[in-house]
Amino acid sequence: MERLAVSCCFLLLLSIFFAFADAGSIGVNYGRIANNLPSATKVVELLKSQGIERVKVFDADPAVLKSLSGSGIKVTVDLPNELLFATAKGPSFASKWVEKNVAAYYPETQIEAIAVGNEVFVDPHNSTKFLLPAMKNIHEALVKSNLHSSIKVSSPIALSALQSSYPSSAGSFRPELVEPIFKPMFDFLRQTGSYLMVNAYPFFAFESNSDVISLDYALFRENPGVVDAGNGLRYFSLFDAQIDAVFAAMSALKYDDIRMVVSETGWPSKGDENEIGASVENAAAYNGNLVRRILTGGGTPLRPKADLTVYLFALFNENKKNGPTSERNYGLFYPDEKKVYDIPLTMEGLKSYHDRRSPVSGTPPVARTPVNGGGGVSKSTSGNTWCVANGEAGTEKLQAALDFACGEGGADCRPIQQGSTCYNPNTLEAHASFAFNSYYQKQSRASGACYFGGAAYVVTQPPSTVWEVRVSNWILKSVKRE
């Protein structure tokens, strides 16, 4: 029976892997503000070798689009801000632009979206009023070429478009942008079946507020979580909180049905002295844990079924970018194609991924009091810690994480099989807590071993109910025997 149970868990795990692969997607931004980058042909080979299936570029360079032809990589191209005025002025320019930069390459180059402008609301050239007319003209040009059902039109916004972002439930757009821009833009996205593009950088929020924002919270590591007083939801990452602030702002305007793509996010591997948190270790942790979060974690606390496509920024360090040192050090790769740090970019790569935290850098692990009587805590510096299920995660996420723990995770789930000593109470949360803690203890209570996409958290006090005590004692004895 035990072998059958493990086999069943393994089969379930395989189906979960396939589901996760479809649920979340990772892409990368291919910026080229540098004078030392490899050729576009070599870049496409690099993308393919890393299993990257989506790429976003900041223009429509012919060499890049030709190199991507036949690669199978989905592409988002950009119409630069400086062309917004001409594109908005009339349909003729838009038609010629689409014909030259999109239709000429499609479908051999799998262009799936056009980003009209980039962070237009913070553009110093005051091009905001041209954005929506330009988007509409580009869409009409796609209709004319019969490409509108295959290629979506959107525009990346920065979080500075929000009037309020904390707590997430209070998310709202800047009032002066609501009527003239956001409402008509959301109507356009809804009518065309498109999505909102959002550039989100937790690094900026952490850098400016490192005295009050936990580094673990910013890097998707174990942490107590933050409860949103407005909706009661618990957040275990700054990224989720930022994304849900945008979702809340959309919901306040009655546009709950519009999807979101995170068009840029990342963490610099190097910065100036005052750029707190910019380091190779933190960049590796943020991007590596983010990939794990997206490919295995589903949606956000506010939108648990809103599986996200996320584009990491960026493919290369770009030596000609202006601004602080961090601006030139967001790359996953150096220009010679060597990795800045080693993280997985695919579901296959996640199987052997561990967040390798340095014991002498970053936020030191300290015991914290659980928030509102529950919630995650950092690994204690003394005594034992236990991993228990997060009942707020929902049935689907708990079941998926339980199947992983009992399958590839290698947790000993024999005691929770029917008829065994810890089968009762026969609830998903109880069984998941047993499996999660078994996995956590076998991993020597390593940082990140009690995450499961937000389905679990660590406690520093022994579990209080009878079944939890029995579970913990059994596991601790098992670990000692090993």
Write the layout of secondary structure elements.
Layout: H1 2-23, E1 25-30, H2 40-49, E2 54-57, H3 62-67, E3 74-79, H4 84-89, H5 91-103, E4 110-116, H6 131-144, E5 152-154, E6 156-158, E7 162-164, E8 172-173, H7 175-192, E9 195-199, H8 202-208, H9 215-218, E10 226-227, E11 234-235, H10 238-252, E12 259-265, H11 280-296, E13 309-312, H12 347-350, E14 386-389, H13 395-406, H14 428-442, E15 456-459, H15 466-481
Parallel strand pairs: 1-2, 1-13, 2-3, 3-4, 4-5, 6-9, 9-12, 12-13
Antiparallel strand pairs: 7-8, 10-11, 14-15
Helix pairs in contact: 1-13, 5-6, 6-7, 13-14, 14-15
Catalytic activity: Hydrolysis of (1->3)-beta-D-glucosidic linkages in (1->3)-beta-D-glucans
InterPro entries: GH (IPR017853), Glyco_hydro_17 (IPR000490), Glyco_hydro_17_plant (IPR044965), X8 (IPR012946)
Keywords: Disulfide bond, Glycosidase, Hydrolase, Signal
Structure description:
The chain is an alpha/beta fold and 482 residues long. The protein has 2 domains: 25-350, Glycosidases (TIM Barrel, Alpha-Beta Barrel), CATH 3.20.20; 386-481, Methane Monooxygenase Hydroxylase, Chain G, domain 1, CATH 1.20.58. It contains 15 helices and 15 strands. A hairpin with a 6-residue loop joins strand 10 (226-227) and strand 11. The protein is globular.
The CATH class of the largest domain is identified as: Alpha Beta
- Average pLDDT, rounded to a whole number, is 85
Q: What structural class do you assign from the helix and strand content?
A: alpha/beta
Q: Per the principal axes of the C-alpha atoms, what is the gross shape?
A: globular
- How many extended strands? 15
The largest β sheet comes out as: 9 strands, parallel
**Spatial strand order of the main sheet:** 5-4-3-2-1-13-12-9-6
Estimate what percentage of residues fall within beta strands. 5-15%
Remind me, CATH topology of the largest domain?
TIM Barrel
Report the radius of gyration as a whole number of Å.
Answer: 24 Å
**Number of distinct helices:** 15
Instruction: Give the total of domains.
Output: 2
pLDDT < 50 runs, ≥5 residues: 1-22, 359-383, 464-482
**Overall helicity:** 25-40%
Question: Superfamily at the CATH H level of the largest domain?
Answer: Glycosidases
Distance between the termini: 23 Å
Name of the CATH architecture of the largest domain: Alpha-Beta Barrel
Order of helices and strands: HEHEHEHHEHEEEEHEHHEEHEHEHEHHEH
Region (Disordered): 354-380
Family: Belongs to the glycosyl hydrolase 17 family.
Domain X8: 385-465
Signal peptide: 1-23
